[in-house]
């Protein structure tokens, strides 16, 4: 390499790090470093409350509120939870969330498909009416649900609580899945019809598999909304169908608050949602971004 070539190539090589020099890094690289630092700071801010709760759960019962950063981890708080009624409440939450999510998808997905593909009078009003069921404040529906459930015998039951969660989750399913179905070309279904499939056969074999990312994203949201419900579970349950969020309030006693058990219960309550999200993470990201563009 001649001196002239070396002098001409020095600035370029210095910018890419292949040649010693004092040229500043490219602007895009500085911006990327700043974005990474901001994302890391945001991640730490979001995870800090969860990390603090986990470390409280792992502290010995007598040192939960100590400010010492170093401590001997223990599982005493978790072991104490399983000696009471919390395991049954935890199982109730799993059953209620699973039943309500499955029922919401079973009813809401076909309804969303019909509202997306079929043309009939009042279609817009029906979709708006379904969405309106989600707009109503829960306190406005408490007394009607309470009286109706006491009359039909569904009060303090897992099935009754799952039905209430289903009534609110159906609107989420319908409005989410309408977007995903609208992004699927209708020509694919028409090709299936030409090959001999009926309307619902084409829906089951063609449209539904293509909408799998949307189904996963919708199922996660339904499960989270049902799992985190506190109000209806508090009003409509007593002993048999108490869920985990309501059971945590039992550790708030007049003699004092059992912070170790509260932190341990909160940690356990997070685990099913985290595990369910990780299982469908491959479809979740695709589902959250699907429907943004239409052919």
TrEMBL record:
Membrane topology: Multi-pass membrane protein
Chief localisation class: membrane
CDD domains from the UniProt entry: TM_PBP2
Keywords: Cell membrane, Membrane, Transmembrane, Transmembrane helix, Transport
Domain ABC transmembrane type-1: residue ranges: 90-280
Pfam families given in the database record: BPD_transp_1 (PF00528)
Transmembrane segments: 33-54, 90-115, 127-152, 158-185, 206-227, 262-280
InterPro entries linked: BP-dep_ABC_trans_perm, MetI-like, MetI-like_sf
Protein name: Carbohydrate ABC transporter permease
Keyword Membrane listed: yes
Organism: Azospirillum isscasi
Subcellular localization: Cell membrane
Protein family according to the UniProt entry: Belongs to the binding-protein-dependent transport system permease family.
PROSITE patterns: ABC_TM1
């Amino acid at each position: 390499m001649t001196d002239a070539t070396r002098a001409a190539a020095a600035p370029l090589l210095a910018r890419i790090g292949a040649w010693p020099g004092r040229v500043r890094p490219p602007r895009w690289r500085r911006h990327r470093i700043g974005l990474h630092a901001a994302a890391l700071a945001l991640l730490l801010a979001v995870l800090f409350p969860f990390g603090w709760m986990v470390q409280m759960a792992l502290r010995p019962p007598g040192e939960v509120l100590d400010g010492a950063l170093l401590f001997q981890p223990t599982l005493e708080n978790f072991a104490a939870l399983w000696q009471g009624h919390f395991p049954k409440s935890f199982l109730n939450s799993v059953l209620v969330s699973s039943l309500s999510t499955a029922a919401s998808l079973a009813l809401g997905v076909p309804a969303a498909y019909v509202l997306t593909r079929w043309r009939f009078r009042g279609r817009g009003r029906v979709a708006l009416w379904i969405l309106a069921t989600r707009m109503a404040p829960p306190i406005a529906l408490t007394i009607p649900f309470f009286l109706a459930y006491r009359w039909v015998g569904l009060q303090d039951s897992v099935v009754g609580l799952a039905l209430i969660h289903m009534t609110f989750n159906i609107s989420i399913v319908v409005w989410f899945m309408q977007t995903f179905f609208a992004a699927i070309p209708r020509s694919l279904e028409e090709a299936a019809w030409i090959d001999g499939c009926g309307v619902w056969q084409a829906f089951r074999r063609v449209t539904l598999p293509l909408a799998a990312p949307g189904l996963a994203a919708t199922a996660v949201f339904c499960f989270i909304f049902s799992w985190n419900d506190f109000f209806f579970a508090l009003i409509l349950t007593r002993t048999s169908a108490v869920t985990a969020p309501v059971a945590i309030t039992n550790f708030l006693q007049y003699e004092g608050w059992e912070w170790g058990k509260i932190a341990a219960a909160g940690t356990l309550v997070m685990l099913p949602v985290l595990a369910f999200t990780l299982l469908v993470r491959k479809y979740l990201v695709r589902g959250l971004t699907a429907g943004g563009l239409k052919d």
